[in-house]
Amino acid sequence: MPATLIKGKDIREEILTEIRADVERIRDKTGAVPGLVTILVGEDPASVSYVTGKIKTAQSLGFKEVQENRPETISEEELLALVEQYNRDETIHGILVQLPLPKQIDEKKVINAINPDKDVDGFHPVNVGRLLIGGGGVKFPPCTPAGIVEMLRRAEVPTAGAEVVVVGRSNIVGKPVAVMLLQKAEGANATVTVAHTRTRDLAAHCRRADILIVAAGVPGLVKPEWIKPGSCVIDVGVNRVGTKISKKTGKPVAVLKGDVDFEKAAEIAGWITPVPGGVGPMTITMLMQNTLNSLKFMLGME
Ligand code: NAD
Asked: Is 261 an active-site residue?
């Protein structure tokens, strides 16, 4: 496999070590620690698993972690009141409402109700605007795109002047990562194309990408022959394609595959991210980084 593997798992450990040290330093100096509230509505297994990962990581870093679990039947009014309670709580610097929310609740209304200065997911329109404008005003870049940019930086993949092709135009991955990489900034300055379901000749776009970021949620969408030799392939896709018995626990676990045919692509690319263990671990890591930064903003340390 000639491609260098960009392992999110290893980068996560590096970043978490940095965050832990920063938390201790700030706590010793000021007595304050980053505070994160995770609001989970209902018991969707995927949401429960994501939130559990966030809670465990926050606790391992010495954050204050508050869990608010509410039943599927909660009203919009009650959820908005809960968000408002934490908007006013000075010990909380990050408010995370796990999406999706049940049908009776307007997701947009809830996101808009979060104080933009505590919106560590970066989904509030104010933070989306800050991201688009770029520069020093960006407070909370959304976590998965921020993780991708950080992986490129730490793997020393050149971005200035690079042809970047992003496959997927979602608000949580495709659009924001495209915006981040086209900014006039260190670790960006790329020429970006965003492809989607209506794109004509996806293969031709992928073939000229120096950096190909695939976030479509379609297993094996990108064929090995679409990959430019020596390029960097970031596979964001997480697709459950079956189950297998875990050697560790003896229980059935999901078999995960990305949007790229990894084995063959790794023979052609210069860098590649695996699935699992690539972009996945970066998302929670960047949420922790945003929560720490939120405390620093509040203390005037940044
Ligand atoms: P989404 O469904 O909201 O958007 C998918 C996008 O891909 C759409 O814009 C669509 O136009 C495009 N697309 C779909 N099929 C296509 C095709 N055949 N050709 C061209 N474009 C196509 O998805 P999302 O929320 O952005 O997630 C994308 C994938 O990334 C999913 O597999 C998801 O599980 C994964 N994901 C991973 C992380 C992580 O932390 N690793 C975070 C978010 C999403």
From this structure: no
Residue of minimum CA distance from atom 15 in ligand 1: 216
- Residue of 122, 117, 114, 119 whose CA lies nearest to 144: 122
Which two structure tokens, joined as six digits, stand for 251?
């229980």
> Ligand 1, from 166, 170, 275: best to mutate by most atoms within 8 Å of Cβ?
170
The end-to-end CA distance of the chain, in Å, is 42
Q: Which amino acid belongs to residue 74?
A: I
75-109 per-position pLDDT tens digit = 999 999 999 999 999 999 999 999 999 999 999 99
Ligand 1 mutation target, pool 236, 279, 283, 284, most atoms within 8 A of CB: 236
Distance in angstroms (rounded) separating the CA atoms of residues 202 and 114:
37
The active-site residue, picked from 22, 119, 121, 261, is: 121
**Active site (annotated) includes residue 139:** no
> For tokens 């939120």, what's the residue?
294
In the chain, which residue ranges form alpha helices assigned H by DSSP? 8-30, 45-60, 76-88, 107-113, 125-133, 143-154, 174-182, 202-207, 262-268, 280-299
Nearest-angstrom CA–CA distance, 190 and 170: 19
* 94 within 8 A of 34, measured Cβ to Cβ: yes
pLDDT tens, position by position, 204-234: 999 999 999 999 999 999 999 999 999 999 9
